[in-house]
Specification:
This protein is of the alpha/beta class. The chain is built from 12 helices and 12 strands. It folds into 3 domains: 180 residues, Rossmann fold, CATH 3.40.50.10890; 61 residues; 41 residues.
Length: 327
């Protein structure tokens, strides 16, 4: 079983509609965009559900029928699947809207982008807007382009709506990074950074334990996975000491014989490095590159007085190398 939130409880459910309305209103009033890194399946559709309600009830004022972009082909495909399987995916509240002829996850002003050209055009749009894009932890996907165009803006807001694992770009930003590197460029973090707490597809500690206790008979062993190392360990100890489960948090490569319920081979700890921890190694390599550049200048000076043919050939080779790496 997973343990993403195995060390905490979500607490009382926040008023997501109120929080999201306040974030959009405040950001638009100062002329910025609301950029939301979001997981494609489930999370994006929940956001569309709340934004539809915000628009329908006119909760954001002074900005007309504001635009909402879903810039993720996978998110758009997932939304289409939700729409094609309404009875299987919508809860009672959403089904009541459907019965009134209302689609709970679409609304005027919603724009979906598929091609890369459509995606690029979003950042040429000067109007205040909401941009929902994947990936949810900002380590891949189109969201990185939108961060590049909005992180440096004091009027924009980056809104996180899901768990950010150790070592991810999302975690760095949430933890207060003042600058990040995107596409080889250092970007200053000047935007407002916000998080909707609890809006997650993962159960909290109480929910995980409640799920496990419904097994009858009781499992002979519980493997605790999918959480930061410290959380996995804490949740495993909780299951063992407080609920008397035979629980273990296996390391990478660990092997078990399930028929005998025994460990065949122990695994190894592979710690996830944050990008900050990798900086020193990157700097060392960059220093080698600088030294190589200095050596090139020495070699160029050594060729002073060479034939025009040789110097022209050398020049073409240097320019070709520069064209390849100037990106």
């Amino acid at each position: 079983m997973e343990s993403t939130y195995g060390d905490r409880n979500h607490g009382e459910k926040p008023d997501y509609l109120k929080e999201l309305t306040e974030i959009i209103q405040t950001t638009f009033d100062r002329g910025g965009n609301v950029v939301i890194p979001s997981f494609a399946v489930g999370r994006t559709q929940i956001l569309l559900y709340y934004i539809r309600k915000i628009k329908a009830e006119g909760l954001v004022t002074g900005h007309g029928n504001f635009k909402v972009y879903v810039d993720s082909p996978l998110s758009n495909e997932a939304t289409q699947i939700f729409n094609e399987n309404i009875t299987d995916n919508f809860d009672q509240e959403a089904l009541e809207l459907v019965q009134k002829g209302i689609n709970p996850i679409t609304f005027p002003g919603l724009r979906t982008t598929i091609t890369s050209d459509e995606s690029k055009a979003i950042n040429s749009d000067d109007d205040c807007k909401v941009i929902i894009s994947a990936s949810g932890m900002c380590d891949a996907g189109r969201i990185r382009h939108h961060l590049k165009h909005n992180l440096w803006r004091t009027d924009s807001t980056i809104l996180f709506v899901g768990h950010q694992s150790t070592g991810t770009l999302g975690q760095m930003i949430l933890d207060g990074a003042t600058e990040v590197k995107l596409f080889g460029e250092i970007i200053q973090v000047n935007a407002e950074i916000r998080k909707l707490s609890g809006i997650s597809g993962h159960a909290d500690k109480a929910g995980l334990i409640n799920w496990l206790q419904h097994f009858d008979p009781k499992p002979k062993r519980v493997f605790v996975t999918h959480g930061d190392t410290s959380v996995c360990d804490l949740f495993t100890e909780c299951l063992k000491n407080e609920y008397d489960y035979n629980a273990v948090a296996p390391f990478s490569g660990e092997t078990y014989d399930l028929t005998l319920n025994t460990c065949v081979e122990k695994g190894k700890v592979i710690e996830v490095q944050s990008k900050g921890e990798k900086k020193h190694a990157i700097s060392t390599v960059y220093e080698r590159l600088i030294n190589a550049g200095k050596r090139l200048m020495v070699v160029i000076q050594h060729n002073e007085g060479g034939t025009n043919k040789d110097l022209a050939k050398f020049t073409d080779q240097i320019n070709s190398l520069c064209d390849k790496w100037d990106r």
